[in-house]
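Lab meeting minutes (informal)
Scribe: AK
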Amino acid sequence: MIKPLDRRLLLARMETAQAETQRHLGVIERQIAARAERMTITDRAKRRPHGRSASSWTNADERLFQQYVAELALARHGEIDALTLKLDRQETAIAEFRARGRASQRGGERSGA
């Protein structure tokens, strides 16, 4: 049987690993959004005269931005899918670990009564 202190340490390690996976996924999402924004601004500057003075983001710009986000996400779908699956597995493992801990606590209370 795992001691309560060891359980807490193991759970903390699992949660830290999950947070790192989530952070990595967030980094990729921010990279994609930033690149799509740069691509949209570059394209907008090429299409419009006086591109630097055009400060408003139009509906057409938003559609183009979303298109670039989709294209860039598709290009990195393998990495995104792998991280998403890993995150799902980590969430499941943590939930099961917590459930087993609650079950063993209840069992210990019954046998100790």
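Next up, CB showed the second protein from the same session:
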Amino acid sequence: MAAPLLQAQVDINAPVSKVWALISDFRRMPQWSPQCRLMRPLGPVRQGTRTLNLNRRNRMFWTTTSTVVEMVPEEKLAFRVNMNNTIWSYELEQIPGGTRVIESRHAENGVKAVSDMAVNALFGGTASFERELVEGMNASLARIKAAAESG
């Protein structure tokens, strides 16, 4: 059974506007996420926008689609992965000296049965896969931090 909430956070020495520009540019998602190879929005990024995604884990590739479910500029961006109904979000908060970013994977209502079966059959089970997702969140946030703090 999927954990209801997975989360990671980072403090970045850059203004919210700069961090938002990086996070809200879905085409750059492969630069941040170790698992994402492609994220293409089908139109301007706003609530309701759908994306086509390509993910990779070792030698395995799979496609998904997602839908932006919440967008508050410079505050929050959330999208639902349609294949499993999880919601991924980035929340930005201005802090002294920069921006705090919290990345979350919400599965409070569980995931679709087909997703559970795939994770157990192909990814070594839920616990192992979710540990890998949190590691990926931390890697993504570290990459966003590096990009935001450079030049």
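CB comment: The chain is about 30% helix and 40% strand.
No objections, moving on.
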